[in-house]
Amino acid sequence: MAEILKGAPVAAALTEKLIARAEILKSKNINPTLAIVRVGEKPGDISYETGATKRCEKIGIDVKKFILPDDASHEKILNVIREINNDSSIHGCLVLRPLPDKKIEEAACEILSPSKDVDCMTAGSLASVFAGRGDGYAPCTAQACLEILDFYGVELEGKNIAVLGRSLVIGRPLSIMLQNRNATITMCHSKTRDLEKISRNSEIIIAAIGRAKFVDKNFIAPGQIIIDVGINVDEAGKLCGDVKFEEVEPIVKAVTPVPAGVGSVTTAVLAKHVIEAAER
Ligand code: NAP
Question: Does the pTM of the predicted model rise above 0.90?
């Protein structure tokens, strides 16, 4: 039976440390503040916004919400970002993505102040992650994977890791962050040949492809550690990851569950970035 790498203890440990840091900031009359920009009423966005708000309130971070209708003009959306850039009481900004259209998303990413970019939207933040400079904030979900591995004491140096999925929000930056920790990465995507073999030959698999229960027993080998980033709905309408948990769990050394795995750490990482931005 595998060790189940639950997200809650990781998030709780992060939260406890952040409460102390928020108190220090408040003693200096600095109220750490996150702006959340939501366009439209997508249930996934609302659910993430609710989770992020609860986490921030617990820590002592103020949340200012900027909610726009689905059909808001590009100019209106950009003006909200400009307002946030110019508001010195706001330290971090989360824009719930994807925005209704790609063009406005690119424009929003371009104008957000890099110092408030707590979820790695801007090219500057991505460049910082890719260069390993440490002056920009990593994407929260990618960072959540690292927080879980660190919390459960998984050594990364010298490890062979298969990262499945190369999106700019998860797989690609995560593969660089893992390389910066001296792991050896095989970056896999939809055109990768022999995906099952590559996965079986890795010591750690990180699945971020958005395909329900795709990673089954053919991908895995005893002793592996599996991080499941996927959030999908299975045929029965139940939330599930990219990993076929029931098939994989009896074989591997450790695996994150879905729900209650990576997703539950992401908002704690977001809060960590807001506190860091306020401290800076
Ligand atoms: P995405 O932008 O759609 O990217 C998916 C990636 O997976 C692409 O690189 C794609 O390859 C690759 N892929 C798709 N099918 C594949 C296959 N059959 N074999 C190998 N690679 C394949 O998705 P995303 O935004 O990165 O999200 C990935 C998953 O993470 C989703 O389930 C999403 O809901 C979840 N997610 C979780 C959290 C969290 O907090 N836990 C946060 C955000 C997202 P190509 O590049 O070749 O197309």
Answer: yes
User: Rg for the chain (alpha carbons), in Å?
Assistant: 19
- From the alpha carbon of 144, which atom of ligand 1 is closest? 40
CA 189–ligand 1 middle distance (angstroms): 9
**Which of left, alpha, beta for 149 (phi over 0: left; psi -120 to 50: alpha)?**
alpha
Which domains, ranges and CATH numbers included, belong to the chain? 28-119 (3.40.50.10860), 140-263 (3.40.50.720)
Distance 246 CA to ligand 1 centre (A): 21
Summarize pLDDT for 213-253 with one digit per residue, the tens: 999 999 999 999 999 999 999 999 999 999 999 999 999 99
CA of 231 to the centre of ligand 1 (A): 9
Tokens of 27: 């003693």
Q: What pLDDT does residue 100 have?
A: 87
What is the spatial distance between Cα 104 and Cα 109, in angstroms, rounded to a whole number?
Answer: 8
User: What is the Cα–Cα distance from 125 to 133, expressed in whole angstroms?
Assistant: 10
**Could you tell me which of 34, 29, 30 has the C-alpha nearest to residue 61?**
34
Cis peptide before 259 (omega within 30 of 0): yes
Does residue 186's CB lie within 6 angstroms of at least one atom of ligand 1?
no
- Quick check: CB of 10 below 6 Å from ligand 1? no
